[in-house]
């Protein structure tokens, strides 16, 4: 059956934990994880709720393939209303926490209310209890993990927690599990902090049972693993070079946002690339990259584990950062590097370590630093306000800012509000490189046109993981399309958005989609889950999830006007590279996208569309 | 007697293909003098880059589809960059 058919409801106000059966009709309509948790959320909260109030809820959810032998079946999702955007927030993480939740016998945990004092939740199979977190509050994610394992005398307990960023309501705080995996975007960690919930620790020893047809599941998962192993991207490229291999590619095609999107190519891109991570440093003769790493059940292993240069100015007096640790991944390297004009690989890894340690999204943090550096160069911010010189390219400023933001010190408090609020405060809202308040990831939509539409319409604000048309427009997966053309992109964006919703909701990693199509996922879901899980149904489920998220955002107050890009991307042409002279053609693509979606010209799903999808 | 005209191009091989760069490269980029009229496909063959690994082939950042590589002639100052199948996120 795939699901455990059981959820845990934790009322933090009352301090209670209760068991509920999973709504299996909803599971049949929304599959699991992202889709099913969002269905619960939109059914239980007022769309206009203040995201940081006790009336908001936060759900940690697995999918039917989480914890199974399906490759990459270790994903879980944190769903809530996001404080950075005010839109649906849905952040997905790998590691081992999600599988452990499944092994303990739960499909999801719903948190509601707010605890009067800091607490953490301990789940050991059927047993669930809230414990006092007085001794954990103020600790980093790393210290929290260590302390809980110590207290439980159990090195295998799996933990998701917030660091100081979540406690301090940094609006892009994340929830970190297994030291360096994170439900990273949209500020889900700030919601957790607002509830005085420090951590969730799970120990599950039940395994996964109830697979509908085990023989068929064994065959389907093995067949699908072979597809991943035989594919040059998932079998060779990602394990060896990780996501960071994109740095030079995206720079070459002129779509690497640089210095707050002023430029589309970064002169130091090669210094912060995957290839650079493989090169021996002059300082100590060691490579930055130590090894690759895999999340639970993953046969790709794209993760990067690196060792920072011990003599670098950021860490020479801080031995705790000298060991091998997570990073750099492409998005973090871009946001902490090119977005600010910083070409110092070690400084980027330092900032990345602090983001992991204290639970902050490096994309939104880095992009907010980029906005601050532009305001500084324009003379709107100065040394007195920031507390230091902060021109583009300053590794020193980056390192100091990450420390200040994580602990909410000085100007760090303003950085912690994100670029939209920062730029509004200083009278230049157009300099926030964001959509719906969430900062862009590492692709400039003047050079990759479809991504402009994907960003503008993403249900959680600017994001590459809602509809990754880069795969087609740049990498030729599944087919190559022209990144500079707008024709055909509305259909392409819709197809990516709907399919991604299915991958996310199944409990597997979207990176499998570099080799798999839905046709590879379908036999795995069908063998694991009761009910009819045909291709037609999966496509419909993906579209239903997308429309449900959209309807929540519309009810929260978002309109077609919010499906927009900053004027820099639609009015200031790219200065160099293949897209030189071009802006993003969103105005042309958006009306067509609404039509393809079955929405009104105002961006609302029509009655017919809602009826067709059962919404 | 025919005059041999050469042009200067930048030849860039990334990720696992960097092993195919000739000696003398710094990083992933090498400047080379090649005969005028040299095609993209000739460069791929000359440096023994396996055809199936030459997945993402860009000239000045523009993708050159497999079918056009044999007739796409390089110009002076061109940047030819090649990657194996890769992806990220």
From TrEMBL, chain A:
* Record-given protein name: Aldehyde ferredoxin oxidoreductase
The family database entries (Gene3D superfamilies) matched by this protein are listed as: Aldehyde Ferredoxin Oxidoreductase Protein, subunit A, domain 2, Aldehyde Ferredoxin Oxidoreductase Protein, subunit A, domain 3, Aldehyde ferredoxin oxidoreductase, N-terminal domain
In the record, the note on similarity to other proteins reads: Belongs to the AOR/FOR family.
> What keywords would UniProt list here?
4Fe-4S, Iron, Iron-sulfur, Metal-binding, Oxidoreductase
Q: Does the keyword Iron apply?
A: yes
UniProt xrefs under SMART domains: AFOR_N
The record's PANTHER family line, in alphabetical order, gives:
ALDEHYDE FERREDOXIN OXIDOREDUCTASE, TUNGSTEN-CONTAINING ALDEHYDE FERREDOXIN OXIDOREDUCTASE
Drop me one GO molecular function for this one.
4 iron, 4 sulfur cluster binding
Every copy of the Aldehyde ferredoxin oxidoreductase N-terminal domain together lies at 3-206
Cofactors (names): tungstopterin; [4Fe-4S] cluster
Query: What parts of the sequence cross the membrane?
Result: none
Question: Which parts of the sequence are annotated with region: Disordered?
Answer: 562-581
TrEMBL record, chain B:
Q: Which Gene3D superfamilies match?
A: 3.10.20.30
Task: Name the Pfam families on file.
Answer: ThiS
Q: Which InterPro entries does the entry mention? A: Beta-grasp_dom_sf, Mopterin_synth/thiamin_S_b, ThiS/MoaD-like
- This one is known as Molybdopterin synthase sulfur carrier subunit
What organism does the record attribute this protein to? Thauera propionica
